């Protein structure tokens, strides 16, 4: 039989009192710390963020320091990510001093970070708090979404302005759509993006000649995303990036290619080097007479040339 949430909260507070003291120091076992994070996550997901906040504010520093903030729910979201998505500013402020940069920018199973969730949900103050704590504005999901694209698609102009001020770049996603395109499709006219687009356009006008001195980067094609975009793995650091290509250019999967970085920071196909060569097929029956060989035997094909 499932226990009610009131009992669950009572169990949380009772656990807080079960401390082990040694010379005034307070310790908490790893198992207790893990369970503690599970309790906090459960409270946030059931609308009891205020209870979670009270428990943190009442705790002693050694107990909070023992909490493993990298623990997640079944979808890979940390307590910070859930608090950010839910708009719980005070709880985010209570958690942030105890998390490392890696946890601050830790993506869930969908690739979304705490900043992305807050941006998509329109929580202006939380975005400002996360950015002040050092949240990375350039993190991208597998499909090329960023905090900027999520905020633009949802029509949150003030958050878009914050992200642009922190250096966010309006790069296209895996489908080739920029934050401007996503906002326009949803019927949003964002002043921040208009100003950004004008600034980028004026910069491009000042540069009469394209910089062709950029060194191409070797990569391997992983997937075909659309007629104009492919996903490639860079040979330098093995990261996956979205690469734009001409619509009439056929690029096979697993082909070796060279890509260059465009003026806006996005990747563009430079040259197709070739496919990964297959091993040459050999005759499976070398002693069999020629007229008895298989139809697709390489010896037979060679004689027909």
UniProtKB/TrEMBL annotation:
- Tell me the domain of life: Eukaryota
Output the InterPro entries linked to this UniProt entry: Ankyrin_rpt (IPR002110), Ankyrin_rpt-contain_sf (IPR036770)
Q: At which residues are the ANK repeats?
A: 110-142, 143-168
Keyword entries, A-Z: ANK repeat, Repeat
Query: May I ask which residue range the UniProt record assigns to the signal sequence?
Result: none
Please verify whether the record's keywords include Repeat.
Answer: yes
Record's protein name: Aste57867_10443 protein
Traced from the root, the source organism's taxonomic lineage reads: Eukaryota, Sar, Stramenopiles, Oomycota, Saprolegniomycetes
């Amino acid at each position: 039989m499932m226990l009610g949430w009131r009992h669950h909260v009572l169990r949380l507070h009772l656990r807080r009192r079960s401390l082990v003291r040694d010379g005034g120091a307070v310790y908490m076992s790893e198992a207790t710390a893990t369970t503690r994070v599970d309790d906090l996550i459960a409270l946030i997901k059931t609308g009891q963020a205020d209870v979670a906040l009270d428990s943190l504010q009442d705790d002693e520093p050694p107990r909070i320091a023992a909490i493993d903030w990298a623990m997640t729910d079944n979808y890979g979201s940390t307590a910070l990510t859930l608090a950010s998505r839910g708009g719980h500013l005070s709880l985010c402020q209570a958690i942030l001093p105890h998390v490392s940069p890696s946890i601050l920018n830790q993506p869930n199973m969908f690739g979304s970070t705490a900043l992305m969730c807050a941006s998509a949900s329109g929580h202006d103050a939380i975005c400002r708090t996360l950015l002040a704590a050092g949240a990375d504005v350039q993190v991208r999901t597998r499909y090329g979404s960023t905090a900027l694209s999520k905020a633009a698609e949802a029509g949150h102009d003030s958050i878009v302005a914050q992200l642009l001020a922190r250096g966010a770049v309006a790069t296209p996603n895996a489908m080739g759509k920029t934050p401007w395109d996503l906002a326009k499709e949803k019927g949003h006219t964002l002043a921040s993006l208009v100003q950004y687009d004008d600034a980028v356009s004026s910069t491009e006008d000042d540069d009469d000649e394209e910089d062709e001195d950029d060194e191409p980067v070797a990569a391997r094609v992983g997937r075909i995303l659309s007629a104009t975009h492919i996903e490639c793995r860079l040979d330098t650091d093995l990261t996956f990036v979205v690469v734009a290509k001409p619509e009439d250019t056929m690029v096979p999967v697993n082909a070796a290619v060279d890509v260059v970085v465009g003026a806006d920071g996005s990747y563009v196909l430079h040259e197709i080097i070739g496919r990964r060569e297959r091993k040459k097929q050999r005759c499976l029956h070398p002693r069999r007479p020629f007229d008895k060989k298989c139809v697709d035997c390489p010896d037979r094909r060679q004689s027909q040339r």
